[in-house]
Specification:
The complex is a heterodimer of chains A (421) and B (200). With 421 residues, chain A is α+β, with helices and mostly antiparallel strands. Chain A has eight helices and 22 strands. By secondary structure, chain B is mainly α. Chain B is built from eight helices and no strands. The longest helix of chain B has 28 residues. Classes of the chains: A alpha+beta (421), B mainly alpha (200). Chains A and B meet through helix 1, helix 3, helix 4, helix 5 and helix 6 of A and helix 2, helix 3, helix 4, helix 5 and helix 6 of B.
Chain lengths: 421, 200
């Protein structure tokens, strides 16, 4: 008599109609006598039904053969240089010449299509006094300080927000800021927020609601226990000394700490705690953000902001570079990156590398320090993965490289990314 | 049509018989479509990539070393085609609003009306999330089976894995999916997890 363990293996093939006759018989006999296996068969059928139903929406309905045949290209002759050759052999070769050739072709495409502006001038952070926004709402007493310190001053509506200013709300005071990058912040009571630039803030404590407009450059938030990166979204951040909680209403938000990164979707929430992976879970943004409903911009301040201060932020900026690299299912132990060496003598910025799989699942995060990009250094970098990070069984990787402008200001144009094992 | 082996059809193609290629297209379009959907379904690019993959396959057919392995070779071409498409289009797409979850609105949605739409969308998203959390090696076989209802043999021919491997993969995948979907079904009943903080 077959054991339940053996029977379990027959259930899926049975549902898929792939059981041999004798196996089917064994299964039928066992099911008629074993209630738990019968229940397992039922729940497996339910799961299968759910999957079929859900995926039916996107299955191929049309016969694409006529379309394909209508525009059939010419077949290559065997004499022509083999480009799409012998897939399996090519994939088994490590860094063969063919890979470089196709990588350069890819670079040409990337450069042409993306059309980056190289070496964008970005004002050095030291120039304090740069206006990055305006106060558009205020209730109660809010203090404004800078690091090099003179005594704190009061914030007021229509007051200008300068780079590296810190805003501190107390009990019963709230604040709203409009930044030139297009981001709006609502700051709750008992909070401390430092505005490091028009696209970068540090939330030291408290609760902040943010709306980030879609913009090439993205917006960065640092907290005591992790960092947040966004490109067009509405969300809330609640910072305690040992935990930051991020809740998303619209758009997508990427949260990260030293351990890992994670992407939050609307209706999701995650905690950033040192030493733990941020894991998304469901939440109700409406409830979390209710406090922000009472704060809205003073119409006059808004108007002044839009007609004067906001213009300061109009700048075309490309902040991130995206790559799609084939890994051919092999083990990836290192990622090799090359870039254009430039002659600009100013400080170059460091970069953060985000690696995800084809479904968008985050795989690893790695920071490349600014010193790597300085003039005089080799224009290549090999990112060696730790044992726990080694990637295997993946065909396609999405790699995003984002500048970290805290250290330097000049951006680098990346030329090539390859995988090796 | 199915009584001719892939290798025979490939040889006929190489001799100039385009009908033989259309048989191959017919035979493999579901598999190629599912693969294209896997890599770029969230951008609605699966049909474009499917067509381009077949064109690329036709163009480089003379370079296929082992005509018996046409299926697995075609899968690699599809992967490469998808990669090329993503390289070209991802930077632009990342900046635009991402679709609620990797799909374009279908006729089904319109027929069902707004209420039906949100329910089926939710189910679709849940399933999509569950599949995405499977080990990568399981995801494509799962799509081939549940999206296009390919047989184990067909899946084996396309992925290059043995039939036994596929059977094992689908069995283990089904177990994980059962857990993942069963759990989320339970969560719906409990209600949303909200974050409460001392009111300010």
């Amino acid at each position: 008599m077959a054991s339940c363990r053996q029977i379990e293996r027959l259930i899926q093939p049975c549902i898929d109609g792939e059981l041999g006759q004798s196996e089917q018989l064994i299964l039928d006999l066992h099911i008629s006598e074993c209630r738990s296996c019968a229940a397992l068969l039922d729940s497996s059928k339910t799961t299968a039904a759910t999957l079929y139903e859900a995926l039916r929406e996107v299955r191929l309905l049309e016969d694409l053969t006529p379309k394909v045949m209508a525009h059939l290209p010419d077949m290559e002759s065997l004499v022509a240089p083999a480009i799409f050759m012998n897939w399996q052999a090519e994939q088994r070769r490590r860094h063969a010449a063919q890979l470089r050739t196709s990588a350069f072709a890819m670079v040409a495409v990337v450069l042409a299509v993306l059309g980056f502006a190289i070496f964008l001038a970005w004002p050095p952070l030291e120039s304090s006094g740069r206006t990055v926004g305006m106060v558009t709402f205020q209730k109660g007493q809010v203090q404004r300080t800078t690091d090099d310190q003179q005594s704190p001053r009061r914030a007021s509506v229509q007051g200008l927000v300068k780079e590296n200013e810190r805003y501190v709300t107390s009990m019963d005071s709230t604040l709203m800021l409009a930044l030139t990058g297009g981001t709006e912040l609502k700051i709750n009571e008992d909070s401390r927020v430092k505005v490091e630039g028009d696209r970068r803030i540090a939330i030291e404590a408290g609760r902040v609601w943010l709306h980030v407009s879609k913009d090439d450059a993205g917006f960065h938030i640092s907290t005591p226990t992790g960092a947040i990166r966004v490109f067009g979204t509405t969300f809330e951040v609640s910072v305690d000394p040992d935990r930051t909680l991020v809740t998303v209403k619209e758009g997508e938000v990427q949260v990260e700490n030293d351990m890992a990164f994670s992407v939050l979707k609307p209706g999701q929430q995650a905690s950033l705690v040192l030493g733990q992976r941020p894991t998304p879970r469901e939440a109700d943004p409406g409830t979390v953000m209710r406090w922000a409903d009472d704060i809205s911009a003073d119409p006059e301040a808004q108007e002044v902001f839009l007609t004067t201060v906001k213009r300061l932020g109009d700048r075309v900026m490309r902040a991130e570079q995206m790559w799609v690299v084939e890994a051919g299912g092999h083990e990836v132990r290192s990622i090799d990156i090359a870039w254009e060496q430039g002659s600009d003598a100013r400080e170059r910025c460091g970069y953060t590398v985000y690696v995800s799989d084809a479904s968008g699942n985050p795989l690893l995060i790695h920071r490349i320090p600014a010193s790597i990009f300085q003039a005089g250094q080799p224009s290549e970098y090999s990112l060696t993965l730790e044992e726990t990070q080694v990637i295997s069984g993946v065909n396609l990787l999405h790699i995003k490289i984002v500048p970290d402008r805290r250290a330097g200001t000049v951006e680098t144009m990346f030329a090539q990314i390859e995988m090796s094992s | 049509m199915h009584h001719e082996r892939d290798a025979e059809l490939v040889f006929r193609c190489l001799e100039g018989d385009t009908d033989a290629f259309s048989s191959l297209v017919h035979r493999y379009q579901s598999a190629v479509h599912a693969t294209a959907f896997y890599y770029a379904g969230r951008y609605g690019a699966q049909e474009d990539i499917t067509q381009e993959a077949f064109w690329a396959a036709y163009r480089s057919l003379p370079h296929l070393k082992d005509p018996d392995k046409f299926g697995a070779w075609l899968k690699e071409i599809t992967t490469r085609t998808a990669a090329n498409w993503l390289r070209k289009n991802l930077p632009r797409l990342e900046r635009e609003t991402p679709l609620p979850h990797r799909r374009t609105v279908s006729i089904e949605d319109v027929r069902q009306g707004p209420q039906g739409h949100s329910e089926s969308t939710e189910k679709f998203e849940r399933v999509q999330l569950a599949i995405d959390s499977l080990p990568e090696r399981y995801r494509l076989p799962v799509l081939l089976r549940y999206m296009q209802e390919l047989s184990y043999d067909e899946i084996s021919r396309f992925t290059g894995e043995s039939r036994d491997e596929i059977r094992g993969i689908l069995h283990r995948a089904a177990r994980r999916l059962r857990e993942a979907l069963g759990e989320s079904h339970r969560k719906d009943k409990e209600g949303d997890a909200t974050w409460h903080r001392a009111d300010k």
